[in-house]
Task: structure prediction
Amino acid sequence: MKYPFYIIALMAALLVSCIKSEPQNSECDILEAWVEGDGLEQYFSQQTDMRVSDVPSSSEEIIFTVRNRAALPPMAVHFRITAGATITPADGSVQDFSAGPVTYTVTSEDGQWKRTYRVDFREGVLPRNHYDFEDSELSANGKYYLWFITDQNRNKNHLWSSGNEGFMIAKPNAKPEEYPTVPDDGGVEGRCVRLTTCSTGSWGKTFKKPIAAGNFYLGGFDVSHALTNTLLCTQMGTPFTKEPVKISGYYKYTPGPVFTDKDFKELPDRIDQPTIYSVLYLNHDEEGNEVMLHGDDVRTSRFIVRSAEVASLPATDEWTRFEMRFEGTTPIDAKLLANRGYNLALVFSSSKTGDTFEGAVGSTLYIDEVDISYQSDQTSEQSE
Result:
């Protein structure tokens, strides 16, 4: 059947109109990054170190952990980015990372938005014996605090995380000092970390998450689970190459006046308590798949080989020393340990049952001058 020219023209115009009416994607995120190629495995401790999956939406850095950055050859990084976006330098282009990070720019499909990422290859952070929490800074959006340590190459490493980013969803207008985890000038020496159990307001009551305990831990935070399963937000642990034996430090604690459950119902017979605990666990399973513990299994996972917890943390307004020793009889594989095959998680919280949204608004825990003793340190002392 033949159509008159004007009908064909009309149909074409309608088709173009439909195409133009579909909005273009305005997102410009890197979702995943990886390195692949023959012979590159030798530069990484684990094959899974060659891929950075589930890049947090708030991240401005993508860090690959390598054995020796100075020995790195030029290599190509591949990216998975949001639909329709473009990236420069180009995906898969060969870059020299041996001297420092390379900045990539992602532009949204509609061309209206851009994001920059620093992609870097760094040597694993050496386990430290002492953490004083002196160094903190505001997040890129200026909303909440982040903590960092400076490594041997003067890079900032955010080993420590908190649930502050999740709290931003509940109270987007809160000032940085009103978040659950903040720096404080009244430390044992210099600054310390102050953890406070906070109300999440009307948002929290609606979603049956009425409180946000102040928490502080070794690991990362993925805000994408905040509305579905908050326990998955907390990525507990970071690779360590030493076996911990003992952790000590100083704390102060004041419980909030009214203990409530997840429905914000008062439970007058309960008094809030803080918690401090740590676990060492295998970060790969038998098939070589990466293992990361979260708030739902950090105390129960079959991959845990050592654990420690402070048995009692009485309320006190004076700096008080705490100590916990690791227990467990599972043999530690020395070679696997040296190759970053174990993660250490160390957790502080102002409400022990805050993960189930039970606690007392106003409960406040201060932490400072934390020391970690390792098996290798004790062995060296005994041999001298």
In short: The chain has five helices and 30 strands.
